[in-house]
Amino acid sequence: MGPAVPILVLPEAAYRRLRELAEAEEVSVEELVLNLALRGASPSEAAEAFWEAAEALLGQAEEELRAGDLRQASEKIWGAAALAVKALALERDGRRLTRHRELWRYVADLSRRLGDGQLRRLWQVASSMHANFYEGWATAEYVEDALGDVRAFVERLRGLRRRLPRG
User: Structurally, what CATH architecture does the domain formed by 12-161 represent?
Assistant: First the structure.
């Protein structure tokens, strides 16, 4: 289970509005709120917050999976992967990634720099969970496998924090 995080309680209408804003920005609601909260933060503060949030989302995904809410588990899995990529890009390269396209390109570049195609595959798994949030096609087994894969992805990225030469 991930680190404990405060829970924000909102009226359903406010949450729906946040979801609409997040979709327009191509991020999860958690990322949208985190991005707003981190405006003006130093890159190292923002990166550390992204790492912490990624771990918390993995823990929440596990809880959602146990509760049988596959769509919410899927969205948390995707969010954890996206936040880990954002954290690494900010920490290692000073880049703030804000769009899906930037995330995909960053992972592709990272994979090339390291000669590690497995990073691309794990990222694709994470992205399939983002699609599953909207489509609801994945079985519990797929979501559980994806959770394991994305945990591995986040750990691999964490391991690159100090080792990877800057971009």
Answer: Up-down Bundle (1.20)
**Which residue is it, tokens 């519990």?**
140
- What pLDDT, on the 0 to 100 scale, is given for residue 1? 44
> Which of helix, strand or coil describes residue 22?
helix
- 17/110 Cα distance (integer angstroms): 34
- Encode pLDDT of 30-47 as tens digits: 888 888 888 889 988 999
Scan for tokens 């899906």, then name that residue. 100
C-alpha closest to that of 106 among 43, 41, 160: 160
Round to whole Å and give the CA distance between 56 and 73.
12
Give pTM, 2 decimals.
Answer: 0.86
Q: Confirm if 83 and 109 have CB atoms less than 8 A apart.
A: no
Which value, to the nearest 10 degrees, does the dihedral of the CA atoms of residues 48, 49, 52, 58 take?
-130
71-102 pLDDT per residue, tens: 999 999 999 999 999 999 999 988 999 888 99
132/77 Cα distance (integer angstroms): 11
